Amino acid sequence: MRTGDCYNELLKGAKLSASSQLSDDRSPKDAIIHGEQIDGGNAWTAAQSDFGQYLLIDLGKKHNITAIATAGKQFTSEFVQEYRLDYGNDGQDFSNYRDRNGNIKV
């Protein structure tokens, strides 16, 4: 039985924005997986393929996040190979998520 915030839809109702988007059908709102395999339809894809791209998710309140799922767009080369998680309270100032030794977790 799945219980707790790990299996709740934390992104439902969240405010999503991004540094860029490839097209109208690759917008930040399309980043939500909903626990289902993406069938070639929805996916957020940045307009550029570089380290400056980001997806900003405002959950509205503090949560203890213990897992993050990512998925590429099926039948394409649109997927993330590496990401860094930053967090904050005001949408402007962010801290890097770090491991126990203080190293930025990638």
From TrEMBL:
Which cell locations does it reside in? Answer: Endomembrane system; Secreted
Signal sequence, start to end: none
Topology in the membrane?
Peripheral membrane protein
Q: Which GO terms describe its molecular function?
A: signaling receptor activity
Primary subcellular site in the record, as a coarse category:
membrane
Gene Ontology cellular-component terms for this entry are:
endomembrane system; extracellular region; plasma membrane
Q: Which InterPro entries match?
A: FA58C, Galactose-bd-like_sf, Neuropilin_MCO_CoagFactor
Domain called F5/8 type C: residue spans: 1-106
Q: Name one GO biological process term.
A: cell adhesion
Query: Per UniProt, which keywords does this protein have?
Result: Cell adhesion, Disulfide bond, Membrane, Secreted
Which PROSITE patterns does UniProt cross-reference here?
FA58C_3 (PS50022)
Q: Which PANTHER family does the record match to this protein?
A: F5/8 TYPE C DOMAIN-CONTAINING PROTEIN (PTHR46806), F5_8 TYPE C DOMAIN-CONTAINING PROTEIN (PTHR46806:SF5)
What name does the UniProt record give this protein? Answer: Neurexin-4-like protein
Which species is listed as the source? Leptotrombidium deliense
